[in-house]
Each structure stands twice: as structure tokens, then as C-alpha cells.
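for the writeup, i need someone to sanity check this before i put it in the appendix. the sequnce is what the collaborator sent (i think, or maybe the updated version? ugh). structure was predicted straight from it, no edits. if anything looks off just tell me and ill rerun, i have time this weekend
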Amino acid sequence: MGFDERFLGVGAALPRVIGADAAASVSLDYVHFTVVLDSVRRLARVTGVNIDGASLLDLARGDDWRFDERVPEDWQTGPAVYAANDLDRGHLVRRRDPVWGTREVATRANSDTFHFTNAAPQAGGFNQSEELWLGLEDHVLEHAEANRLRLSVFTAPVLGPDDPPYRGIRIPLRFWKIAAWNRAADPGEPGEQVAGELAAAGFVLDQTPLVDTSQAVATAPGEVPPLGPFRAFQVPIADIAAITGLAMPDLVAADVLPQTVAAAGWRRLAEASDILL
């Protein structure tokens, strides 16, 4: 149960909540993934999932969104936030990522992804950048094919102080994702400690409005705050640590983004071939 930091055969720890935010955080284990919930913001501060691409199962999606009964409902962003508007319940841990293993285990994992603790409001509709974001794991799995298609992926919203308020929460304007894998030719069985080298790549999805809408938000508090088009970037993992306030030293050290590229700023992604691994 839950995220396994030794899944890759080398250490890849879940980013850690530090400082004042740690007191408001609670860790919730599911099948093959973990959500660290911020009980004040009512959204995940970090999630981590282990993906065994070689044994993924293709199960029916379902749509049984529900509260996690282990924590109070008012710690979670539930159906009231998504009612009668165009906000999507965006999966943080992608639905298919933990759906592997025996059919019984995979079915439980599939169901677990539909807890509200694993969702965050996102602008409705699809465009190229969002589709790219949803396919990042697939692209990295293809890159890691020689390593038995095994990944650990971390993702969550950036819980910023300036996120616009709506129905008792603040809607995140940015999301982050880090994919990690083992460069070893044979990383052994899941969780087995072997020689190898951790590699990781970091990404940010931005739905910040492209124009200043602060006045509109202030004069229409009952309406969904305007959100901008999805823009995806490959970014230094150190930048993700900085904007989230999370401790992730192993992932920062394993970043595959060349320093010369990182020095030029965030790398805008238009298609999968733009990603540097």
C-alpha cells in the first residue's frame, strides 16, 4: 500500500512538506500511490505514484468520485466546488498510472484514484498543452523502456498565496510534475536495491490568465475565476522545490535538464519531442 520510495531500485523519496505547512498536512496511502493532503487548502500538497509500465492493465474508467472517509470532509475539495460550472475534477495521480499488478489489485487502484483527495479544479476543455501534460508519463515510459518501464511520478498543484478564491477554496493556477527513473540497465525487481543512478525531469503546467484579471475577480466573487490557456514547461527541479516549498534534494540532484538549458529559463513545450530526457 502507498508509495514505495525504493520501487526503482534506487532511492526516490516522496518530496517532504517542511516548515509551518507540515502541521496542516496528512499522508494518505492508497494502492500504489500516496497523497499528502493540506487540510487548510483542502488540496494535495504532493502525491507520489509507482508505475510498473510492463504490467499495466486497461480497466474501465468509472466515475465514482467520493470523499476519503479517513479524514473530515471539510478537509477535502468536494463536489460543491465543481457543480454548475466548467471546472474539471483533474486527476493528480493519473487514473491509469497505479492500475497494474493482479486484476484485483489494479481494480482497487483504479477506484482509489477517484477520491477527492486526488483531484484539483482545472479549467474545462482540452487543448494541445493539456494533452501533452496528460501524456508525459507515457513519453517518459517509452524513454525508460530498457529499464522495464518503471517510473515514480510526483505531482500536485502549486498552492500559491495569490490563487483566486472560489467557493471556500483557492483555485491553483499552476501544477507541477516530476518523473523519476533508474538509469540502470537492469534495476531488478520492484523495491530491490541494486546499483543504478536516479534520473528525474520536472515540469510545470500553467493556467494563469494571460492578462491581468484581478479587478474582474474582485468584482465577481461568486463566479469561476478566469483561467488562462494551458501552457506546459520543462523546468529545473530546483525551481519546483522553490515554488512549492517542498524538500526534494534527491530529485534536484538527479535532474536531467542540462545546466546550459536551465540557465535560459523555463522551456516551453509544444510537443513531446521538445522534452529533454
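The chain is about 20% helix and 25% strand. Residues 103-112 form the longest helix (10 residues).
thx in advance!!
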